[in-house]
Write a structure and sequence with these properties.
The chain is α/β, with parallel strands linked by helices. The protein contains 7 helices and 6 strands; from the N terminus they run αβααββαβαβαβα. It binds guanosine-5'-diphosphate and magnesium ion. The site of magnesium ion (MG) has 3 residues, from helix 2.
């Protein structure tokens, strides 16, 4: 194909993508309104792409009766209503994964979806703890959160995929695995929660932490 024809094709493709982004933005803004109206605290999953955000969302909602509530699942496919151990509810919302270098053309579309994070009451920063690049990935996530003006949001660091860091061949239970890390990895502080979304380890601890953090926030705002 001659260059000009190619260019036209690309332009049309860009226009089409632009229209798609507008449509998605409108849809998201509708979801956002409905979520706000519900008055339920919003917890948003953030993190590097592939960290396990969607797996965690599914693991938490599978183990949770509240998430079967059809009204909420049809409200927004990326948001689930979850019951905390104190029997209160939160809306848990998935987001697109962050990556280090975004092409400028993608940034604006990406930002539009991330604007939703502004309304979140709490961020769960999901990290692939088994990744050899965990530190760089976390820096990239922190930088994007700073760019979005979200450094002041309450945040829990979720260290995911701990199952991949264990000796293979041994049959670990979730409790044994958590105990092992807490006694062998002094860098893990009390604002971090260890989980394996794949094995469903540490989920109750995470829900308790969410509950505590939200209670603390409400207490200080009152
Ligand atoms: N071994 C293991 N794999 C996991 C865990 N959590 C997620 N994964 C895998 O990591 C990959 C990325 O997960 P996904 O949830 O799509 O990541 P997202 O991009 O953050 O939404 C998938 O292949 C998951 O099955 C975990 O706790 N352990
Ligand atoms: Mg995902």
């Amino acid at each position: 194909m001659e260059p000009s024809g190619n260019r036209r094709l690309i332009q049309r493709r860009i226009q089409h993508l632009g229209a798609e982004v507008d449509k998605v933005s409108r849809q998201r803004s509708l979801y956002r309104q409905r979520r706000r109206k519900s008055g339920i605290p919003i917890v948003a999953l953030v993190g590097y792409t592939n960290a396990g955000k969607s797996t965690l969302l599914n693991a938490l909602s599978q183990a949770n009766v509240a998430s079967e509530d059809k009204v909420f699942t049809t409200l927004d496919p990326t948001t689930r209503r979850i019951m905390l151990p104190d029997k209160s509810f939160v809306l848990l919302s998935d987001t697109v994964g962050f990556i280090r270098k975004l092409p400028p053309a993608i940034v604006s579309a990406f930002r539009a979806t991330l604007e939703e994070l502004e309304e979140a009451d709490l961020l769960l920063n999901v990290t692939d703890f088994a990744s050899p690049h965990a530190a760089e990935e976390n820096d990239a996530v922190e930088k994007i959160l700073a760019d979005l003006g979200l450094t002041e949001k309450p945040k829990i660091t979720v260290l995911n995929k701990i199952d991949l860091l264990l000796e293979k061949g041994e049959n670990w239970t979730g409790e044994e695995a958590l105990e092992y890390f807490l006694s062998n990895r002094p860098e893990i502080d009390k604002n971090m929660v260890l989980v394996s979304s794949a094995k469903k380890w540490g989920l109750t601890g995470l829900l308790q932490k969410i509950s505590q953090t939200l209670a603390y926030k409400i207490w200080f705002q009152a």
